TrEMBL record:
InterPro entries: Phage_Tail_Fiber_Structural (IPR051934). Residues 1-31 are annotated as: Disordered. This is Phage tail protein.
Amino acid sequence: MHRIDTPTAQKDKFGQGKNGFTNGDPATGRRATDLNSDMWDAVQEEVCTVIEAAGIPLSKGEHTQLHAAIGRLIDEQVKTRLEKNQNGADIPNKLLFLQNVGLEETINLAAGALQKSQNGGDIPDKGLFAQNISAALAFSGGVAIGGDANPWTTAEFIVWLENCGAFNHPYWMCKGSWDYAGNKIITDTGCGNICLAGAVIEVMGTRGAMTIRITTPTTTSPGGVASAQFTYINNGDGYSPGWRRDFNTINKPTAGDVGALPITGGRINGALGIGTDNALGGNSIVFGDNDTGFKWHSDGVLGIYANNALVGYIDNSGLHMSVDVLSNGAIRAGNAKKLSLTSNNNSALTATFNLWGDPNRPTVIELDDDQGGHLYSQRNPDGSIVFTVNGDITANTLRAGGAIYQNNGDIFGSLWGNGWLSTWIHNNVVKAVRLGPVALSGGLWRDFQLGGGQVVTGFHTDGSWEMEGDDDKVYYRPIQYLIGDTWVTAPSV
């Protein structure tokens, strides 16, 4: 059989190299596909071969022979095939079939296989089975461990585990029965007795390298530790095995267990830093800053440090400071309410300042030195105050009630009109006296008077020594005095 390949065939009609037929197109001059004898011979032989292969003779007048031939060929093939809907029931020799597909050995093995429906219940030796598949094994939920309540060593306990096959599995566990008289007590752990009644035992590892964990119940026989978890570790030859007990919310550690300072108090060996590391060293305490705090120097002597510098110390004679002391509040000393400050370091004489009092003198302030007192002040029971100074008082300003004494000698007080004395003198005291401007009177007459505050300074005549009223006159001036900055003419009485 082949595809049409005449010159008029439509090239690649059904894809590359797949020619086809065309009816042509008169409008474009394209010719219809020509059919040659090669093409028709190929078609004829293909069809005839199928009909004859089915054993059907060719008949010129019949046009369904190809369909009949195909059906007969299919039927012949189906006769030797299995029917799907028979599910293998139409296999003639089933044993031979299983042998041919290699299932004979599988069938033989299945005869001794475990039944899935048994969920492992048909395993003959379950312990050996768990061991072979390296599975965990729950040995028992209530077994008498040791058989009595006598003490047990760890070595005896391990022998019992070994006899139970505990080391044949990667994980093995059991629980002691609730029988105090039938379960041993391990007494050589070094961290408490383990009463095995009701305890859960877990074993991990092998005999040569094991971890054993025992969890005790909430109640236990006398001498045992309840609600605890004990762990025994042995990592093999050359390793020192031993027990340890975990702390939990019920079995809390003591301060001694963890090396802590008890809340009731205790001893700290070494330096202490609060909020920081300690750089002072020795027996010291620092606060926030690693070199600021207190440090023990010697018997009865405690040093005070700031930024690693010794700023003072305390001993049985008191507080000694090598730097300034600043107080924003009161400084008190003793139940007798007496404060005494003494210095013999910065002066030639030892000076003492005392602050004290008694019922007759509620408050007394004294300052003296080796040669006597400087000042003394006391408040009397009636509330008044007496202040005595042995020497001069120098001050920029002194106050006495409402009066003020300035260092320039001026005084302020109510006597001066609630003002300064200098201002009062300026405004009220005559500072100077003078005669005012000269004036010439009119004529003179009998009982002539110039008026208040005027004085005669000269006479004027027309040349005759005889006084004549209209022709004779006098020169006069007013008497004036200066108050403040104003010249005032003196009045007459």
